[in-house]
């Protein structure tokens, strides 16, 4: 597998990364005078004081805001519609997304639908989406990440669910890249251990999928390997002790860099497959679903020797300097899952039945089939179903 020397880099986002960077928000030139302050329907940013700190920074910048607290895990198009209506009703001229992956993902769709007519699925590519171009530019976006997982604080993508059709599909346009992103690891100290692990593996797989993608290039490989190395080194520490800021910073780096990696390359069918799982089972955390299928997903390509050198490089980055076989990656991955306490995750624990494997494989291809094209070798419907079956517990 040859590493491509051609790539396109589009990074319009100003990134403030590091402990204490939230304190710089009030000094920035923000893209408007009235923010739709988008947060989750939970209470974490309230109880930790993060919401109050952000509001104080907006006041310091002389920027008004309207609070919208309706985003839940695996956000739906209804959530997007509601938030966009709030933005229009109150004359908000930009979106400030404060939260984890669900909030950051939803922000892209909210910004688009605040200025465009119709239904979000009019503009979604894949599945039952109509794939129409946006008629008007979306609102500018500012992101403040409170978890490490999606990397969507610095890219134009978000994943939205349509519960009527059991579809979970990526939505985005280059013009929806945030103009400013703040990644402050101090905001992540209270994330529970289990979710730290789930989100950390989501970040890991963004990078490992880019590494095996047939579209990997010299730059995406370089940044992906640096992210993989730091996630593998620091995620067990962050899971064990959330107050370990060195560990939180290392994982946050790996997650944010994944946002850049995905801009440069693409994830693969692993993400299509998990989106099918959580499209039917809404309480399944995305990262947990990825862990459940990961070993068998990567084993599929290792057995076919699709990109042996890439797996060896990743194994070395994950703490096996003497790795010389692609199977060493599976060993490193299993050990990381064990030390982070996620090795025993089961699909059946979230209500998934073995009989669903065929339907999940079909959904993965019908809703996000484009990601199958990034795989390093062909994966048929039967192959996809078999991976689900082999991973099932």
Give structural notes:
- This protein is of the alpha/beta class and 393 residues long.
- Helix content is 46%, strand content 12%.
- The chain is built from 13 helices and 8 strands.
- The chain has helices at residues 44-47, 50-60, 77-89, 101-113, 193-212, 218-240, 245-264, 269-280, 286-303, 308-317, 327-339, 357-368, 381-391; strands spanning 14-17, 34-40, 64-71, 94-99, 141-145, 157-162, 167-172, 180-183.
- The strands form 2 sheets. Strands 1-8-5-4-2-3 form a 6-stranded parallel β-sheet, sandwiched between helices. Strands 6-7 form a two-stranded antiparallel ribbon.
- Strand 6 (157-162) and strand 7 (167-172) form a beta hairpin.
- Helix 8 (269-280) runs antiparallel to helix 9 (286-303).
- The longest helix has 23 residues, at 218-240.
- The two termini are 33 Å apart.
- The mean pLDDT is 96.
Task: For this entry, give a set of tags.
46% helix; 8 strands; alpha/beta
Please outline what is shown here.
This protein is an alpha/beta fold. It contains 13 helices and 8 strands. It has helices at 44-47, 50-60, 77-89, 101-113, 193-212, 218-240, 245-264, 269-280, 286-303, 308-317, 327-339, 357-368, 381-391, and strands spanning 14-17, 34-40, 64-71, 94-99, 141-145, 157-162, 167-172, 180-183.
Instruction: Briefly note the structural class of the backbone.
Output: alpha/beta
Strand order of the largest sheet: 1-8-5-4-2-3
First-residue to last-residue Cα separation:
33 Å
Which outline best applies? Answer: globular
């Amino acid at each position: 597998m040859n590493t491509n020397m051609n790539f396109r880099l589009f990074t319009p986002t100003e990134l403030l990364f590091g402990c204490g960077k939230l304190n710089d928000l009030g000094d920035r030139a923000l893209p408007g005078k009235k923010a739709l302050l988008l947060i989750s329907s939970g209470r974490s940013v309230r109880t930790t004081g993060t919401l109050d700190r952000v509001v104080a920074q907006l006041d310091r910048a002389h920027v008004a805001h309207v609070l919208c607290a309706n985003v839940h895990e695996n956000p739906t198009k209804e959530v997007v519609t509601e938030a966009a209506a709030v933005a229009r009703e109150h004359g908000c001229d930009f979106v400030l997304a404060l939260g984890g992956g669900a909030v950051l993902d939803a922000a892209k769709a909210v910004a688009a639908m605040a200025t465009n007519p119709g239904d979000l699925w009019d503009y979604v590519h894949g599945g039952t989406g109509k794939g129409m171009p946006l008629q008007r530019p979306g609102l500018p976006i500012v992101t403040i990440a409170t978890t490490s997982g999606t990397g969507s604080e610095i890219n134009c993508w978000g994943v939205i669910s349509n519960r009527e059709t059991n579809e979970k599909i990526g939505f985005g346009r280059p013009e929806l890249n945030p103009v400013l992103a703040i990644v402050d690891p101090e905001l992540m100290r209270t994330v529970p251990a289990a979710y730290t692990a789930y989100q950390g593996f989501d970040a890991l797989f963004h990078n490992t999928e880019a590494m095996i993608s047939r579209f990997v290039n010299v730059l995406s490989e370089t940044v992906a390997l640096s992210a993989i190395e730091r996630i593998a080194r620091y995620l067990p520490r962050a899971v064990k002790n959330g107050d370990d800021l060195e560990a939180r910073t290392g994982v946050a780096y790996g997650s944010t860099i994944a946002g850049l990696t995905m801009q440069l390359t693409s994830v693969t069918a692993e993400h299509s497959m998990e989106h099918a799982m959580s499209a039917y089972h809404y309480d399944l955390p995305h990262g947990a679903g990825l862990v459940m299928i990961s070993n068998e997903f990567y084993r599929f390509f290792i057995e076919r020797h699709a990109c042996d050198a890439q797996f060896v490089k990743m194994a070395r980055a994950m703490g096996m300097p003497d790795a010389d076989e692609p199977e060493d990656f599976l060993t490193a991955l299993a050990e990381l899952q064990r030390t982070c306490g996620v090795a025993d995750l089961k699909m059946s624990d979230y209500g998934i039945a073995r009989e669903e494997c065929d339907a999940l494989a079909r959904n993965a291809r019908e809703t996000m089939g484009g990601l199958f094209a990034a795989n390093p070798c062909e994966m048929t419907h039967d192959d996809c179903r078999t991976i689900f079956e082999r991973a099932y517990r």
